[in-house]
Amino acid sequence: MTIDATAQIHPSAHIEPGATIGPGCRIGPFCLIGAETTLHDRVEVKSHAVVTGLTEIGAETQIFPFATLGEVPQDLKFKGEKTRLVIGVRNRIREYVTMNTGTEGGGGITRVGDDGLFMANSHVAHDCQIGNRVILANSVAVAGHCVLEDDVIVGGLSGVHQFVRIGRGAMVGAVTMVTADVIPHGLVQGPRGNLDGLNLVGLKRRGASRADMAALRDMMEELASGSFRDTARAAADRGAANGYVREVLEFILGPSDRSFLAPR
Predict the structure, then answer these.
(1) How many domains does the chain have?
(2) Do 116 and 224 sit in the same domain of this protein?
(3) Is 72 among the domain residues?
(4) Which of 3, 39, 85, 219 is the most interior residue, by most CB within 10 Å?
(5) 163 domain-assigned
């Protein structure tokens, strides 16, 4: 067990032999820190939280009461193999959040990027790959093997089906079930997740110009006119001058285990 001298640990917390606690960490009352866990600099674990398994938590991440990170996957195929959970820096992981380690069949690692906000009761399942600055609102459930790219926002009480990819900058509205891939910068709404347009507010916040948004609108109209992949392939073959459009086309033509939410 390695505990930096500057770490502050409440007497009621239980640190299992083998854990690594970095400089400036703070661990509150009645926490459990597992033997294979690594907490990097200035991680704060508030009361009654559990961090276990082969889990690594990046610097300055805050873990709120009753969160459980690094427990085994909710997958009947899991047979106790050594798999990991790696969480980046400056994340805020709120009350009752659960994040599981990976599975052998899914690559063995669940990964969460930097600067995310995971609101109360949200869940990140085994083998998910979560990007930077992702926001999961209250009670969002992300199933196994999903990919959420940078700057994705998922509204409260929504669910994401296993193996779904959600592209960079997309937004999913509240109380939505996402059963197919979502293109970058898409806006998804409705009980069964319809692609209703572009996340224009997100695009503006990230500095997209009027020309960028016009090019994306034109691309959306073209995609809505025919077979999704065939249309994207033809557009890619012609070449796209706009970087946002190229990003969407590359996403569509990339590897996927699901279909796509197509524009209506």
Answers:
(1) 2
(2) no
(3) yes
(4) 39
(5) no
Residues belonging to the active site: 126-127, 144
**Domain that includes residue 122, residue range:** 2-145
Give the Å distances, CA to CA, from 66 to 118, 183, 205.
13, 34, 33
C-beta atoms surrounding 106 within 10 Å: 22
Residue burial 59-97, b: 16+ Cβ < 10 Å; e: rest: bbbbbbbbbbbbbbbebeebeeeebbbbbbbebbbbbbb
> pTM of whole model > 0.85?
yes
* 235 pLDDT above the threshold of 90: no
CA distance 209 to 83: 43
Q: Distance of CA 17 to CAs 68, 184, 250, 258, Å?
A: 19, 44, 47, 43
43-83 per-position pLDDT tens digit:
999 999 999 999 999 999 999 999 999 999 999 999 999 99
Which residue, 145, 169, 193, sits at the end of a domain? 145
Q: Note the pLDDT tens digit of each residue in 130-187.
A: 999 999 999 999 999 999 999 999 999 999 999 999 999 999 999 999 999 999 999 9
* Final residue in a domain of this structure, among 115, 130, 145: 145
Q: Name the DSSP class of 73.
A: P
